[in-house]
Amino acid sequence: MNTISKFLNDEAGQTATEYMLIISVVVIAIVAGAYQFSPAFQTGTQGLAQDVAQIATTGMIGDIGTKR
Q1: What is the pLDDT of residue 11?
Q2: How many angstroms from the chain centroid is the CA of residue 36?
Q3: pTM for the whole thing?
Q4: Inter-residue contact 35 to 41 (CB < 8 Å)
Q5: Among the residues of 1-68, which ranges form H helices?
Q6: What would the pLDDT profile of 1-51 be if each residue is shown by its tens digit?
Q7: Most buried of 22, 23, 24, 60, CB within 10 angstroms?
Q8: What pLDDT was estimated at residue 23?
Q9: pLDDT of res. 65
């Protein structure tokens, strides 16, 4: 019974979750700032989005991949 009580009172997982949420917000802010202020980052991000869309529809990028 003592082990169950310790498990229910343990808050270590909550702290890790809170840190991960904070880190996520910081990463999103950095990426948004880089996208806003860096034309090279915008171009790369747009190119990546086009490649992902092409993979989703055709299964290929250029001549690489498997046709659907």
Answers
A1: 65
A2: 18
A3: 0.44
A4: yes
A5: 2-9, 12-37, 39-58
A6: 677 777 667 666 667 788 899 999 999 999 888 878 888 888 888 999 998
A7: 60
A8: 95
A9: 72
The residues near 35 (Cβ < 8 Å, ≥ 6 apart) are 41, 42, 45
Name the one residue in this structure whose structure tokens are 């997982």: 13
Residue 67 CB contacts under 8 Å (≥ 6 apart), including other chains: 58, 59, 60
Distances from the Cα of 56 to the Cα of 11, 23, 35, 45, 48, angstroms: 41, 30, 23, 16, 12
Identify which of 49, 67, 48 has the alpha carbon closest to the alpha carbon of residue 59.
67
